[in-house]
TrEMBL record:
Keyword Aminoacyl-tRNA synthetase: yes
Methionyl/Leucyl tRNA synthetase domain boundaries: 34-311
Molecular-function annotations in GO: ATP binding; methionine-tRNA ligase activity
InterPro entries: aa-tRNA-synth_I_CS, Met-tRNA_ligase_1, Met-tRNA_synth, Methionyl/Leucyl_tRNA_Synth, MetRS_core, MetRS_Zn, Rossmann-like_a/b/a_fold
Protein name, entry field: Methionine--tRNA ligase, cytoplasmic
Pfam families listed in its UniProt record: tRNA-synt_1g
GO BP field: methionyl-tRNA aminoacylation
Xref: CDD domains: MetRS_core (cd00814)
Family of this protein: Belongs to the class-I aminoacyl-tRNA synthetase family.
Amino acid sequence: ITAAAEAWARGAAALPKPWKPQKPVLPVEGMRNVLITSALPYVNNVPHLGNIIGCVLSADTFARYCRLRNWNTLYVCGTDEYGTATETKAVEEGLTPQEICNKYNAIHADIYRWFDISFDYFGRTTTPHQTTIAQDIFQRLLARGFLLQDTVEQLRCENCQRFLADRFVEGTCPFCSYEEARGDQCDKCGKLINAVELKNPQCKLCRSSPVVKPTQHLFLDLPKLEERLEPWLEQSFATGDWTANARYITRSWIRDGLKPRCITRDLKWGTPVPLDGFRDKVFYVWFDAPIGYLSITANYTDQWEKWWKNPQQ
């Protein structure tokens, strides 16, 4: 209170001059450098007020606060554009996935401009930088032995000549007998479903009955990381600012033992897998999308690594 009173008495003339960062905004030696991202909105719909309040507006408020503190601040975001939901929307609207992404990326950008969200850069995940960085991370995981191959049973539509992603399958729920359950979840009883468990499954594209066939996929070998992850988590819990909920969920995963996690999908719309035997597949969106934060920054500046590979700053 005393410090506030003294600052008030000195007047506005005594305040430090507002920091004007260079363009593009890059970390500055000796300054507090803050990189802010908000959750990448999915591209297959028009943003509503809940989307904006849920992540974009709160991050914007923090970015404005940081700038008022004269901290060197970069705020980036963009649309998440790969995956099944985009393919589904494209079928609904009679457009290609790329046309859907172009249409809704423009809508998102216009709405955030109307709300005066102070992004330094608003990008997207369907870019050459996304492909380059995602494939590079994949190659590093492969070279270090953190990937596994395994066979998965999946539904295949012989009429469409394709394995069906969860959202392209509909059938009767094995738990409650609801007749319009999706291949990943039943909207009536809320239970998660493996698509091959559905009774009377149908391809949503052509309404024919798919068959169960084996297909090869790549998995992150997460159990290999447990020994290194546990001590790191304990140190991070002690020194970091984790919420009680985040601690609880993380501990439950560790307690139950990490499981290999599939990172590929039998889709066309996505980042291609650069490995013989898997070149007809793409990366699963949950592997690909978080890399969007890096690639969007890379589209903003070719010196993006100063933000993402610079622990001293």
